[in-house]
Specification:
This protein is an alpha+beta fold. It has two domains: about 90 residues; about 250 residues, Alpha-D-Glucose-1,6-Bisphosphate, Chain A, domain 4, CATH 3.30.530. It is built from six helices and twelve strands. The strands form three sheets. Strands 2-3-10-9-7-6-5-4 form an eight-stranded antiparallel β-sheet, sandwiched between helices. The protein has a two-stranded parallel ribbon with strand order 1-8. The chain has a two-stranded antiparallel sheet with strand order 11-12. A hairpin with a 3-residue loop joins β4 and β5. α5 packs parallel to α6. It is elongated. The N and C termini lie far apart (about 165 Å).
Length: about 400
């Protein structure tokens, strides 16, 4: 290629010939350029005009859309503002209701905090008042020691178990274990008459008695002797076992031949190996629906227990406590005069209350003294017999060898 170019020679154009041609060419080019330029300018003007119209239309459309959008957005903003304002108002109301509720709860809490101590104190006061009323005699109210046996077999059994265990627990409270056996070993008899008033004047509310004496015998033999005297008849008292609840609890009926007095009691015997003693309890029954009153008969509620405390193999301390309430008959509680008369006192219709009280208390002391002396005579036979060291467990079966009425 380079060789070819080297061999080619160019001749210069002649000036005369080429000037006309160049002039013509340039004129043609100029005319073509002018024509084309005019056409181009026209087209451009048309395009520009069309574009201008399109732009105007687009701007108008955009302005319309913008106005619509602005109106819509303004309306939306108005709705949103209203909703937001309503939401704020709703929240304020909700918060205010919460605050009001909290204030109410705080007010109630403060009220109950002030009321609770008073209510608790009032309840405690009522409880203590009821407890005190149950521990001490109350006028016009039934005695907590009053007992009534129903004809139902299960009720009678449960009632007898309850009364016997109650008497035993009271005996343990009255006579706790002693630290030394030298404490209070002297014999004594103490009688207290608790008086009350009714429509007829003074009356006996309860008779409280405490007796203590020593027996020269083993405590097991002494307890057996009392138990046999309780469930067996003697010339003064006709005894019969009405019901038996196991071997250590019996329902016994005593009928005194010299006076019109029938005594119904639930008797129980308890062995306490830890304290080395035997306890016999008796609970008087005034009202038994299986045994209604007969004319002229009187009974009394009451409770008593005897604690036979082992001291040595040949010495026993006996502690006997009695609480007997006013006797009742088919007509109700007896008067002071009737109570003293049925107790064997030599009373007169014109005796004053002080005289009746003195005679009644003297009769009670003589009765206890006679019962103690008679029991000591019954136990005197053990002085010549050997002690029962080999039978210290005192089987309950040995205390129940009596026939049921």
């Amino acid at each position: 290629m380079s060789q070819r170019r080297e061999n080619t020679t160019y001749e210069p154009l002649r000036e005369g010939e080429n000037d006309a041609f160049d002039t013509a060419m340039l004129d043609g080019i100029d005319s073509m350029d002018d024509t084309n330029m005019e056409e181009v300018d026209d087209e451009e003007n048309e395009d520009f005009a069309a574009e201008g119209n399109d732009d105007v239309d687009e701007e108008a459309e955009l302005e319309g859309k913008r106005d619509a959008n602005e109106a819509t957005s303004t309306q939306s903003m108005s709705i949103a503002a209203v909703r937001q304002r309503n939401s704020r108002d709703t929240k304020k109301k909700l918060f205010q209701s919460w605050y009001d509720r909290i204030e109410d709860l705080e007010a109630h809490l403060a009220y109950f905090k002030k009321k609770a101590p008073k209510t608790g104190l009032r309840q405690l006061t009522v409880f203590l008042q009821d407890w005190l009323a149950s521990q001490s005699p109350q006028k016009g109210r039934p005695s907590p020691m009053g007992t009534t046996l129903l004809p139902d077999d299960n009720g009678r059994r449960n009632g007898c178990y309850y009364m016997t265990n109650r008497a035993y627990n009271l005996s343990k409270q009255k006579y706790p274990p002693r630290k030394t056996y030298e404490e209070e070993v002297e014999d004594f008899i103490d009688v207290k008459i608790h008086l009350d008033e009714d429509d007829r004047g003074a009356c006996v509310y309860a008779t409280e008695c405490h007796v203590q004496f020593t027996v020269d015998a083993n405590f097991e033999n002494v307890a057996k002797t009392w138990w046999f005297d309780l469930v067996e008849s003697n010339p003064l008292v006709e005894a019969s076992v009405i019901e038996k609840f196991e071997d250590h609890i019996k329902y016994v009926k005593h009928e005194y031949t010299r006076v019109k007095y029938r005594r119904l009691c639930v008797a129980g015997v308890f062995l306490d190996h830890d304290e080395d003693r035997i306890t016999i309890t008796q609970t008087g029954i005034a009202i038994d629906e299986r045994f209604p009153f007969v004319q002229g008969e009187s009974r009394s509620n009451g409770i008593q227990w005897l604690v036979f405390q082992h001291v040595t193999d040949r010495l026993t301390i006996v502690r006997w406590s009695i609480v007997s309430f006013c006797p009742v008959s088919v007509n109700g509680p007896l008067s002071f005069f009737e109570t003293a008369l049925n107790s064997g006192c030599d009373v007169k219709p014109d005796d004053s209350e002080e005289v009746l009280l003195a005679k009644f208390q003297t009769a009670a002391e003589k009765f206890l003294e006679g019962a103690r002396d008679q029991f000591l005579r019954r136990c005197s036979r053990f002085k010549l017999e050997p002690t029962t060291i080999s039978a210290r467990d005192l089987p309950i079966g040995s205390l129940s060898r009596t026939k049921t009425a």
